[in-house]
Specification:
The protein has 594 residues and is α/β, with parallel strands linked by helices. The protein has three domains: 8-191, Cobalamin-binding domain (Rossmann fold, 3-Layer(aba) Sandwich), CATH 3.40.50; 298-437, Transcription Regulator spoIIAA (2-Layer Sandwich), CATH 3.30.750.210; 438-594, Transcription Regulator spoIIAA, CATH 3.30.750. It is built from 25 helices and 22 strands. Strands 3-1-4-5-8-9-12-11-10 form a nine-stranded mixed beta sheet, sandwiched between helices.
Amino acid sequence: MPFLPVCRQDLDDRGISCLDFICITGDAYVDHPSFGVAIISRLIESLGYTVGIIAQPQTDTDYKKLGCPKYAFMVTSGCVDSMVSNYTVAKKPRSRDVYSPGGKAGRRPDRAVLVYCNKLRELYGNIPIAIGGLEASLRRFAHYDYWQDKVRNSILVDSGADILMFGMGEYQTKEICRRLVSGERICDITDISGTCVMVDEKPIDAVECAPAERVKLPTEEGKRAYAEATRVQFRQQDPFVGKPIVQRHGKRYLLQNIPAAPLEKKELDAVYALPYMRAYHPSYEAEGGVPAIEEVENSITHNRGCFGGCNFCAIAFHQGTLVTSRSKQSVVNEAVRITKGPNFKGYINDIGGPTANFRHSACDKKSVCKDRKCMAPEICPVAEKNVSHEEYLDILKTVRALPGVKKVFIRSGIRYDYIVADKNKEFFRELIKHHISGQLKVAPEHVRNNVLDCMGKPHFEVYEKFYKEFYKINKQLGLKQYLVPYLISSHPGCTLEDAIELALYLKKINYHPEQVQDFYPTPGTLSCAMFYTGLNPVTMKKVYVPKTPQEKAEQRALLQCTLPKNREIVRRALLKAGRSDLIRVLLPSDKGRC
């Protein structure tokens, strides 16, 4: 099966005069199921409609090269929010974009969804426009924008699009396509689950959150309203018992319909069985290809959703907290296809997903509890009874026994707390023995429980238990492998004293992190709301927020205090905290000079 049309010559070769739908994306065109636009475009094709791809348009000619679609444009910024893709947490332009040809930055505009939609309106007038993907999904309500340091309208309002698809999008895409093709006007399509639209009146059964005009006020009252609105929005993100939400923008209402239900196993299998080329478009060859394919070309996504509930993570508000997974046969079939690929060298890089070791939801309830998390601060007793790695391990064993497969790695996020909760240690041993290569990356994020509570992470003693068991099993197996902990500095709730305690822990275990993630306030997360408002939206209690560049630099430097460039800033931070006694501890070659 060839790539989908990307130019007029492709249309002529297929005898197509006018496409039914055109997808516009901020990523280079990579026809692989790790790229959302690949899934959506192949899905549209499977429904019997014609569809083309315009990747990273920059000029009017780019937007016009496939003509005007018969029914609608589908617009996404790509796999990542365009502002996250284009800027570091220090708000400096990134020098590299792995989703662009040759990894070159600058091919994706800031606020890509807005740019693309505004240009489409200019060129094509009232053609129906549907927006989706991570950027649209996480910015569906009035949201705090870190880069402008202000609250912006819903992206649906500012883009001028007709409908917004949040979440993974397959169900919504099918319904929108079916109804447009059947002759319905886009303005009349207002009731599809997993979509947001603008309406003139509030539906009777809808829950209302604070209006955009109120949450945009940069005052204490406005910030409280923002935190309260965030709580309302998160509490209704349930496809089974959630209610529609409205948020007034001027004289109209943004209506979020209830989330789309997760795909059933057979539906998810069908999505991953679509005829992907599993490669970037050959037109990028001269520029060195698209770097993002390198890690995922020989990788398999076996699940969706995450009940881990980390407050800084976008998954809960995008994919949802209900876990669905593909059948074993579907995963094995994809593995077989990978072994026959031209770039397969015997290694499957990953069989994972948002959380690699989740195959089912935390418990048998369809709906997630609104008053507690499944895994934090400790695992829910009901969830603990349902912990199992049996099915996942069976898949791993089967795939690694396939002809031509030398090794199957797990490189997606592993929930170490879920492993600790599993009384059967077979998966832990198999993971260490067969599925890592020297290092295992996990995400404790911090050591102080007050900070972990703000992050929505399990308490530190859970990680300590995992840490000890990991090295114990390695010793039993005669292996020398290491844990690489992911750490976040400057998260809401983290004081300078908390950062010092984390630095002391790293000193204790003799670990020198090469990279530290300074907290990035991603739209649509609870942590972002904490950062902006200084309030925890769940409890409405005040949260300390390190915001100044100086304090953020101090916290980050403390976690890498052995680097020469950080010595002076670490010394100043310790003096500032009244901990001059630790200068010789954290900076041992410094003669104790204050």
